[in-house]
Specification:
mainly alpha
Length: 90
Amino acid sequence: MENIPSEKHRDALITLNELSTHQENKDLMISKGLVTISSKYLHDPTPEIRRESVLLLGSLLSIMRGRESVTTETFSGLEKLLFDLNKSVR
């Protein structure tokens, strides 16, 4: 995937976000593993790709089946964004 320009990744995520407005498409995306795949883009250096990835995850996780598909691999991607070992919060 390193040889694919970041604009292509961004455009694909935008298209997936548009398609995820329909319940049937969300279900199909979850079945194909897009929760795990899109969580990997949370660490992309391109801000637009991270943004589209978060939007897609929000859409897919809005239904119970999507939340049930969160794996340890997906969680580790989210955990790196949520927890910072260098900063403490009371």
